[in-house]
């Protein structure tokens, strides 16, 4: 049965023609009801058509054991999709694939990773001078300092930085991969795609950066817009089933495809 015939049949079986008018037999049949019924019919025995959500922004943790999506835009009805297959396209044809687990209930975080930070202890300057425990001055554009920390590739981190800068903007980022947690004072989130350290940068040559707050946390669980991801349908292992080589966890937006 095609769509036109199905909707025509829905009207005939739910209405009677009397006094020149179509009158509902058991109340009003909304067009949305007819549409939903049609799509369920067209989907066949599974009763589920593939849903595609384009232009979605989100943050991802893709490491085995803590795989999830959080801060997801678009009001995706995850609860309706529970245990369905999900494919996340980063916009370059690379995918992360898995199954939809429980809906998140609120972000939680690890203990603070940079606790006790002191720029004069263990930080390495590059085109910058360390002035004191919380101040640097760039000697060339993008002057920075960096320090190794035990960060895990694939995990999502939250960075916080506050302070003052004489000119330009400050940066808090990973030491490799080109991913900035922050490109100004504030709070930012980025997946670690391959770094074992943190960089603090003053972009403008000669800029003096005075930092009063510098914090880093691992994000442990998703908020209520996100989901846990499992490697098998209805499974307990919180992991993506597969992640393509080169998949960009920090893409500006994603296409999310949900299928039966």
Give a topology summary.
Elements: H1 3-14, E1 15-18, E2 21-24, H2 31-43, E3 51-56, E4 59-61, E5 68-70, E6 85-89, E7 95-103, E8 108-109, E9 124-126, E10 128-132, E11 135-138, E12 143-148, E13 156-165, E14 170-174, E15 180-182, E16 186-191, E17 197-202, E18 208-221, E19 227-230, E20 242-243, E21 254-259
Antiparallel strand pairs: 1-2, 3-21, 4-5, 5-19, 6-7, 6-21, 7-19, 7-20, 8-18, 9-12, 10-11, 11-18, 12-17, 13-16, 13-18, 14-15, 14-17
Keywords:
3 domains; 2 helices; Elongation Factor Tu (Ef-tu), domain 3; 260 residues; 6-stranded antiparallel β-sheet; Jelly Rolls; 10% helix; 8-stranded antiparallel β-sheet; mainly beta
Please give the radius of gyration in angstroms. 26 Å
Which structural class do you get from the secondary structure elements? mainly beta
Please state the average pLDDT score.
86
Distance between the amino and carboxyl termini: 22 Å
> From the 3D coordinates, which CATH architecture of the largest domain would you assign?
Sandwich
CATH class of the largest domain: Mainly Beta
Q: What's the total count of β strands?
A: 21
* Binned strand content: 35-45%
Shape: elongated
> Which residues form runs of ≥5 with pLDDT under 50?
14-45
Question: Helical element count?
Answer: 2
User: Tell me about the biggest sheet?
Assistant: 8 strands, antiparallel
CATH topology heading of the largest domain: Jelly Rolls
Order of helices and strands: HEEHEEEEEEEEEEEEEEEEEEE
Count of domains: 3
Helix content: under 10%
